[in-house]
Amino acid sequence: MSQTPVLEVKQLRTSFFTGEGEVPAVEDITFSVGKGEVIGIVGESGCGKSVTSLSIMRLIPQPPGKIIGGEIRLNGENLVDVSEKRMRQIRGNDVAMIFQEPMTSLNPLFTIGNQLMEAIRLHSNATKKEAYSQAVDMMKLVGLPRAEQLMKEYPHQLSGGMRQRVMIAMALSCHPRLLIADEPTTALDVTIQAQILALMRDLNHKLDTSIIMITHDLGVVAEVCQRVIVMYAGKIVEEGFVEDIFKNPKHPYTQGLLKSVPDIMEKKERLYSIPGNVPKPGSIKQGCRFAARCEHAFERCLESTPDLYATEDQAHQVRCFLHEEGGGIQ
Ligand SMILES: Nc1ncnc2c1ncn2[C@@H]1O[C@H](COP(=O)(O)OP(=O)(O)OP(=O)(O)O)[C@@H](O)[C@H]1O
Ligand code: SF4
Ligand SMILES: [Mg+2]
Fold first, then answer.
1. Which of 139, 297, 304, 320 has its CA 20 to 30 A from that of 87?
2. In sequence order, which residues have a C-beta less than 8 Å from that of residue 302 and are 6 or more positions away?
3. Among the listed ranges 246-250, 279-283, 324-328, which one has the minimum average pLDDT value?
């Protein structure tokens, strides 16, 4: 990945200002996504995955939310600073997002064709006729059967899996360089999930679109991602190549997450789950945020906050004192 990354997020901080004061949902997030790269962001509920993606899209509801620091460079342009008008051009054209529940993102009152053509025309000078044929092509590309017929149908006439394919077609219709998929398959049944993931992998190969795949499921990461970021309580706790992290997870949190992945070969009675809960943002003022749930915690973990320590080649980073000087836990 020697070329300039498509996306560079540096020291991103996003907070919500509520009656209880500042809630720091995302703190000092730094990562980049290369051209054609598929990167996963994982973590339990409330870790800040969606706040990270909505910050990139500049869709954080303000108030109560606000990006309070850092940079989000998309093809070099810092999205934190651009006007709302410019941001509307960027959304769809350069970066698009797929949400968890496709029904809520499609308008029930308009046909699929209408919405797809609208999305295409919003971001290009295509005539109606051109938009129609592009829409049909896009529907075929995402594997929707009877594309011409489907153009005339309404969202409720489609199954959940088909609606998610329409959303993907819509997101990709203007060939964005970056696609953010926030839990794109959780609302779908397992077989359809597998098909949608295969489709995304296929589109990534065909169109060279960079993808950020947000999920709480490490199985999904193993399936489609090259690199993975593990988030805990608003911060990155581990980052590296999927292969390295699955073979040699360094952070106790990642180790716990991996233990909770169902093993097909080994039918376990009950799936492991990490005891305890993710702390509320801002509730831990001092020390490692994982300390209360960590079986390796020692005195220092309660007093000071670990930095992200990197391996010599910088490929693997981990926020844990046990890895400060290349140490390790098995
Ligand atoms: N509108 C809001 N107002 C106040 N706080 C918010 C708001 N949205 C998010 N937060 C805070 O940000 C934190 C991170 O939320 P986020 O939605 O990013 O979690 P997530 O990792 O996407 O979780 P999930 O897996 O459940 O989707 C939450 O714990 C919550 O405290
Ligand atoms: S810094 Fe301490 S508490 Fe935090 S993950 Fe490492 S060992 Fe556990
Ligand atoms: Mg979320």
1. 139
2. 286, 287, 288, 291
3. 324-328
Half-sphere exposure of 4 (CA within 13 A, CB side): 8
99, 171, 3, 247 alpha-carbon torsion, rounded to 10°: 40
Determine the distance separating the centroid of ligand 3 and the alpha carbon of 87, expressed in angstroms: 22
pLDDT, one tens digit per residue, over 59-101 is 999 999 999 999 999 999 999 999 999 999 999 889 999 887 6
pLDDT digits (tens, 9 = 90+) for 10-45: 999 999 999 889 999 999 999 999 999 999 999 999
For ligand 1, mutation pick of 51, 180, 232 (most atoms within 8 Å of CB): 51
CA trace torsion 135, 140, 146, 147 (10° rounding): 0
With a 6 A CB cut-off, is 64 part of the ligand 1 pocket? yes
DSSP letters, 215-278, are: ES-HHHHHHH-SEEEEEETTEEEEEEEHHHHHHS--SHHHHHHHHTSPPSSS--SS----SS-P
| Amino acid present at 253 | Y
Return phi, psi of residue 16, to 5°: -115, 140
The residue to mutate among 14, 16, 180, 213, having the most atoms of ligand 1 within 8 angstroms of its beta carbon, is: 16
Asked if residues 79 and 73 have their Cβ atoms less than 8 Å apart, the reply is yes
Decide: 67 and 14 in contact? Cβ < 8 Å: yes
Residue nearest to atom 1 of ligand 2 (CA): 320
Quick one: tokens of 316? Answer: 């693997």
Which atom, in ligand 2's list, is nearest to the CA of 252? 5
Q: Show the ligand 2 pocket: residues with CB < 6 angstroms.
A: 251-252, 288, 290-291, 294, 296-297, 301, 306, 320-322
**Contacts of residue 217, Cβ cutoff 8 Å, sequence gap at least 6:** 42, 186
